[in-house]
TrEMBL record:
Membrane topology: Peripheral membrane protein
Record protein name field: Glutathione import ATP-binding protein GsiA
GO cellular component, one term: plasma membrane
Organism of this sequence: Mycoplana dimorpha
InterPro entries xref list: AAA+_ATPase, ABC_transp_ATP-bind, ABC_transporter-like_ATP-bd, ABC_transporter-like_CS, Oligopep_ABC_C, P-loop_NTPase
DNA damage keyword on record: no
Purpose of the protein: Part of the ABC transporter complex GsiABCD involved in glutathione import. Responsible for energy coupling to the transport system.
Main localization category: membrane
Subcellular location: Cell inner membrane
UniProt-listed Pfam families: ABC_tran, oligo_HPY
ABC transporter domain residues: 7-263, 298-548
Catalyzed chemical reaction(s): glutathione(out) + ATP + H2O = glutathione(in) + ADP + phosphate + H(+)
Biological processes annotated in GO: peptide transport; transmembrane transport
Length: 597
């Protein structure tokens, strides 16, 4: 490698003291990062990726970790070298934020909700540079402009909750870049973002690194992102490095079985072209003869959901958020319809409106011919047995005070379906069906991995034998191998039980694998809907094409060379009484429709 080494991690060992003894989180890890180079550390949750990143900034001690052995050598701005593990707290504070900066995974937890975003960026500048408040504010506005935030002067005075997820992540990047660090550590910075925002942020990081010869240590489990941005890859498993190579060589010919499994589990956009319907990972058998169209189960017509905007000391109702605006579709028995689109497009609100977890403003939702929106409280409660939901975050969806048995049994108890030994037998059969054991039923949620928790949520959704499951981003927070297991499980359950899924996601490759039909949403409306092969193979709406072009390809040879143009969707907030023209669609193929207005 021609680039001089900026960071060298040598034989690093990190441990945590637990109630069950010493836990070795990182064991004998060595790698290096050169100036201007992007090195990706990949692996599943618990592999030691984030712990390694935190140790470079001296942050492991705050979470109970201890560096037992090894060195972390860093070449400073003045050309001198140092071992970061031996620096005093005061010296480390000078390095942190100035010469080494970090972007954390969840921008909302990285920002202080009581200060404006501009104040938070300016504070970093004043901490490390001798400038007055006015100069710091001017530099903060320049940084917001640099990370392509529109109207930076106005955004400077806004609070984190007033910005979208993509905007907040850009603010965190601006904070990290405030003092022009020599090394930027990015810990899963795009995991929770939509594909278009993710593509823009990857383009931004690549551009900024090229401008200032900044090195980037990129931590992720998304192999598409790795192929898009990394020069070299370090693969970790159970705290140890199992393989290291250039990105092109590692993707072309991985040498370790774990790396091969990791790459095999990556959903690839376009891999479903030979198949008509959903397909489990590893299943390459030919499609059977296409059956006749499925019998309709759910019919949504002209669904409208709006949220009031209040302003002033008296909380006057001044406007409405048009979250869902005239959405119509049908879902057949045993069919999967996927709703895709960027954050704020109305996907999740549509799913929650169907279940009446939020009350729609107008429209009809018919389940087997019965209008769910017209039901009284008792009838709605009974009807909800046929409609269940799986949420994005399995940990937040489970009660930390209840055991796994109590979580799964709760719907059966509430509806009075089972009791006594029959209840136990039913719960055991459900958890075994989703790949968990009876012995695990006495554990609490924190004792399960992310994938196991999502399996628990699926088991709970199945307890009342529903006809429809609304799956709201059920795999977006999971590692690729766990993601593949959950996708396979959902497809198997559909085949076995005849379930219908409304699958809500922004991961286009997973959507392609799961779906019979796809509906693309933008600003509360469906802009294109049709069979999966038609929408992915022949997209007709400009927005659909933009979404598909932004998906990172897990193949370094097909890395995007042109940056995706930065774009901002119009605001969904409109004055009271504002109404759009009813959506009109053009039929462009069999069961394939595109919005005309």
């Amino acid at each position: 490698m021609t680039a001089p080494m900026l960071l060298s991690v040598e034989n690093l060992r990190i441990s945590f003291a637990t109630s069950r003894g010493q836990l070795i989180a990182v064991d004998d890890l060595s790698f290096a990062v050169g100036a201007g180079e992007c090195v990706a550390i990949v692996g599943e949750s618990g592999s030691g990726k984030s712990v390694t990143a935190m140790s470079i900034l001296g942050l492991t001690a705050f979470s109970g970790g201890r560096i037992d052995a090894g060195a972390i050598r860093f070449r400073r701005r003045d050309g001198t070298g140092c071992d970061l593990t031996q620096l005093s707290d005061k010296a480390m504070q000078q390095v942190r934020g100035d010469e080494i900066a970090m972007i954390f995974q969840e921008p909302m937890t990285s920002l202080n909700p009581v200060f404006t975003v501009g104040e938070q960026i300016a504070e970093v500048i004043r901490q490390h540079r001798r400038v007055d408040a006015a100069e710091a504010a001017r530099k903060a506005v320049d940084l917001l402009r640099r990370v392509r935030i529109p109207e930076p002067e106005r955004r400077f005075a806004q609070y984190p909750h007033e910005l979208s997820g993509g905007m907040r992540q850009r603010v965190v990047i601006a904070m990290a870049l405030a003092c022009e660090p020599r090394l930027l550590i990015a810990d899963e910075p795009t995991t929770a973002l939509d594909v278009t925002i993710q593509a823009q942020i990857l383009d931004l990081l690549r551009e900024l690194a090229a401008e200032s010869e900044m090195a980037v240590l990129f931590i992720t489990h998304d192999m598409g992102v790795v192929a898009e941005i990394a020069d070299r890859v370090v693969v970790m498993h159970h705290g140890r490095k199992v393989e290291e190579n250039t990105t092109a060589a590692l993707f072309a010919a991985p040498s370790e079985s774990y790396t091969k499994r990791l790459l095999a589990a990556v959903p690839r956009l376009g891999s479903m072209k030979p198949f008509a319907g959903p397909r489990r990972f590893g299943d390459e058998t030919a499609d059977a003869e296409r059956a006749s169209p499925p019998e309709p189960l759910l019919a949504v017509r002209d669904l409208v959901t709006r949220f009031p905007v209040h302003k002033g000391a008296f909380k006057r109702h001044v406007a409405n958020v048009h979250a869902v605006d005239g959405v119509s579709f049908t879902l057949g028995k045993g069919e999967t319809l996927s709703l895709v689109g960027e954050s704020g497009c109305g996907k999740s609100t549509t799913g929650r409106s169907i279940l009446r977890l939020v009350e729609p403003s107008s429209g009809t939702v018919e389940l087997e011919g019965e209008n769910v929106l017209a039901l009284g409280r008792d009838r709605l409660r009974a009807r909800r047995r046929d409609m269940q939901i799986i949420f994005q975050d399995p940990y937040a969806a489970l009660d930390p005070r209840l055991t796994a048995f109590e979580q799964v049994a709760e719907p059966l108890v509430i509806h009075g379906v089972e009791s006594g030994s029959a209840l136990r037998d039913r719960v055991v059969s459900l958890v075994q069906r989703v790949g968990l054991s009876e012995e695990q039923l006495e554990r609490y949620p924190h004792e399960f991995s992310g994938g196991q928790r999502q399996r628990l949520c699926i088991a709970r959704a199945l307890t009342l034998s529903p006809k429809i499951i609304i799956a709201d981003e059920p795999v977006s927070a999971l590692d690729v191998s766990i993601q593949a297991q959950v996708v396979n499980l959902m497809i198997e359950l559909q085949e076995e039980l005849g379930l219908s899924y409304l699958f809500i996601s922004h991961d286009m490759a997973v959507v392609e694998r799961m779906s019979h039909r796809v509906a693309v949403m933008c600003l509360g409306r469906i802009v294109e809907i049709g069979p999966r092969a038609s929408v992915f193979g022949d997209p007709r709406h400009d927005y659909t094409r933009t979404l598909l072009s932004a998906v990172p390809n897990p193949d370094p040879a097909r890395r995007r060379t042109a940056a995706l143009p930065a774009s901002q969707l119009p605001s969904p907030i409109h004055p009271i009484g504002h109404a759009f023209e009813a959506p009109a669609y053009d039929r462009v193929g069999p069961d394939h429709f595109v919005l005309m207005n």
